[in-house]
Design goal:
Number of domains: 1
Radius of gyration: 16 Å
Strand order of the largest sheet: 1-2
Structural class: alpha+beta
Strand content: 15-25%
Helix content: 40-55%
Order of helices and strands: HEE
């Protein structure tokens, strides 16, 4: 049972890391109205 719990914990941590990797670059746009992704992968913040 401990092995199953440890494997599930590792999977949850990996999923959280993957989500943070995708969302992390957009966090500087927190107060912006819209967020766009440039062709090279950078995030552009728009405040209307």
């Amino acid at each position: 049972m401990r092995t199953v719990t440890a494997v599930l914990a590792v999977l949850v941590l990996l999923a959280g890391g993957a989500a943070l990797y995708r969302v992390g670059p957009m966090l500087h746009c927190w107060g912006s109205d819209r967020i766009a992704r440039a062709s090279e992968g950078a995030c552009i913040c728009y405040a209307f």
